[in-house]
């Protein structure tokens, strides 16, 4: 089927396939197609950013399009080809600009806090240059590498407790996923599960579950989306949310600080930052809002889409259950578990329902030509958007269907041998696989988030058959930190 679809596409005169012609096929920047004026920004505001990018991809039929962008308010570009995106990562250098460095609202707020407190790393992850690099080197080792597996017991404990409570949320599944993401991340950071999924939880940190997600989504709105998407008093509301996190976190950690100034907590990320990296207590307190915000909304969105797809495809859910039963037999997720269908489900969910319109954004310090032959001037904001090609029916069989089997090894091996359509291989391109970006500015907590998603899915789908109740419920995409289905379906939870 891939051969038939791709053969048909290759016979067309589509500029999208320019990269398979000679290297002399170069498109100058002023010749890159795209919408006029604020057209795409308005589409982003009126529908949602992913739908707007999808429409532009279909309409202009080019690997790169140009538009008046919301970040720079000048000409920005969208890169759809995974090979072009890989090329940008390869050229990004030691101090790249990424999505977080375009978050002007966060930068303004945390720079003010840094100056007031005299701390070093407050807000540094939203900067660029040496300040960003030094902060990442200090903060990253516990979360970005396989060292994140040291926190798996904390994650599993929180996931088990969350699923213990899921029946109370059969009509509010979106609330449950947000609280589950919060409990798992807080367990990693502080070694303490606030059990916010328990409606009767009295833990002092449980009150923060909404603050982090709200603060980051407001800052993203202010910095990266068209003004038409801004809510009234958005900046003031963002500040209020962050200040609440500061206050509650300070109270909590000061109670945990012993006479020697160390944190009396189980082994966890913040304990490592204090005792291994030697960060002062004030530094840790001021870091909490940034990472609490980033650790909820991003993971929540990915979990939501995974659950939605399995609820709407119960036959795939049953296959997943059989794998979980055979491999784990009721035990929690573990790193050594052989769970190819679980991984295929997560990968297919990301293909079919990506939680954003783009992986991230980048700029380059020098002019360059993409692998597909488009000239990009230095300083141009580039949106990395490989999702449209992966849902294009001209290259992907049953592109609108949820079929995890397409990412099992047998199907991947068939694509490796298929020489008729290079675009079919973009499904398996490393660029297309990750919901948390890549490169030097890839998500700091990516490894931990991947563990959280797998741990929660193992618990939920090994213990329950989750079906839509009633069936055929509709939803829209709602833009938060990432996009989420709104509303999540009401479900029936049947114990396995």
TrEMBL record:
Heme binds at residue 443. It holds the Pfam family p450. Coiled coil: none annotated. PANTHER family: CYTOCHROME P450, CYTOCHROME P450 12A4, MITOCHONDRIAL-RELATED. GO terms for molecular function: heme binding; iron ion binding; monooxygenase activity; oxidoreductase activity, acting on paired donors, with incorporation or reduction of molecular oxygen. PROSITE patterns: CYTOCHROME_P450 (PS00086). The keyword Transferase does not apply. InterPro entries: Cyt_P450, Cyt_P450_CS, Cyt_P450_E_grp-I, Cyt_P450_sf, Cytochrome_P450_monoxygenase. It comes from Aplanochytrium stocchinoi. Its cofactor is heme. Keywords: Heme, Iron, Metal-binding, Monooxygenase, Oxidoreductase. This is Cytochrome P450. The keyword Iron applies. Belongs to the cytochrome P450 family.
């Amino acid at each position: 089927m891939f051969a038939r679809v791709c053969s048909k596409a290759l016979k067309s005169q589509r500029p999208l396939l320019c990269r398979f012609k000679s290297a002399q096929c170069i498109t100058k920047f002023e010749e890159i197609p795209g919408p006029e004026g604020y057209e795409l920004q308005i589409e982003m505001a009126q529908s949602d950013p992913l739908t707007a990018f999808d429409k532009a991809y279909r309409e202009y039929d080019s690997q790169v399009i140009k538009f008046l962008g919301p970040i720079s308010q000048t000409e920005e570009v969208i890169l759809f080809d995974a090979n072009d995106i890989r090329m940008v990562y390869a050229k990004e250098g030691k101090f790249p600009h990424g999505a977080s460095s375009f978050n002007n609202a966060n930068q303004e707020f945390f720079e003010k806090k840094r100056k007031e407190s005299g701390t070093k790393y407050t807000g540094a992850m939203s900067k660029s240059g040496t300040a960003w690099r030094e902060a990442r080197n200090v903060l990253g080792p516990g979360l970005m590498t396989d060292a994140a597996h040291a926190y798996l017991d904390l994650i599993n404990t929180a996931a088990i407790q969350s699923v213990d409570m899921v029946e109370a949320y059969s009509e509010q599944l979106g609330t449950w996923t947000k609280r589950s993401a919060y409990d798992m991340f807080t367990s990693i950071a502080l070694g303490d599960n606030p059990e916010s999924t328990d409606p009767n939880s009295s833990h002092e940190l449980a009150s923060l579950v909404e603050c982090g997600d709200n603060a980051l989504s407001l800052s993203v709105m202010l910095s990266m989306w068209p003004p038409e998407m801004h809510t009234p008093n958005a900046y003031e509301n963002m500040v209020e949310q962050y200040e609440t996190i500061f206050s509650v976190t300070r109270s909590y950690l000061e109670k945990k600080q012993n006479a020697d100034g160390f944190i009396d907590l189980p082994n966890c990320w913040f304990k490592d930052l204090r005792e291994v990296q030697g960060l002062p207590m004030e530094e840790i307190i001021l870091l909490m809002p940034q990472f609490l915000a980033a650790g909820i909304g991003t993971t929540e969105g990915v979990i939501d889409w995974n659950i939605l797809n399995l609820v709407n495809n119960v036959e795939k859910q049953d296959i997943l259950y059989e794998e979980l039963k055979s491999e784990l037999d009721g035990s929690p997720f573990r790193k050594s578990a052989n769970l190819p269908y679980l991984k295929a489900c997560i990968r297919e969910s990301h293909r079919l329902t990506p939680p954003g319109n783009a992986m991230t954004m980048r700029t380059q310090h020098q002019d360059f030509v993409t692998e597909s032959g488009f000239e990009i001037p230095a300083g141009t904001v580039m949106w990395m958007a490989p999702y449209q090609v992966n849902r294009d029916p001209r290259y992907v069989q049953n592109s609108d269907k949820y079929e995890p089997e397409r990412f099992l090894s047998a199907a991947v091996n068939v694509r490796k041998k298929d020489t008729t359509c290079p675009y079919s291989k973009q499904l398996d391109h490393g660029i297309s696989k990750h919901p948390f970006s890549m490169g030097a500015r890839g998500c700091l907590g990516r490894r931990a988030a991947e563990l959280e998603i797998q741990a929660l899915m193992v618990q939920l789908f090994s213990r329950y058959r989750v079906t839509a109740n009633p069936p055929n419920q509709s939803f829209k995409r709602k833009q938060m930190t990432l996009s989420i289905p709104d509303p999540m379906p009401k479900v029936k939870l049947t114990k396995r």
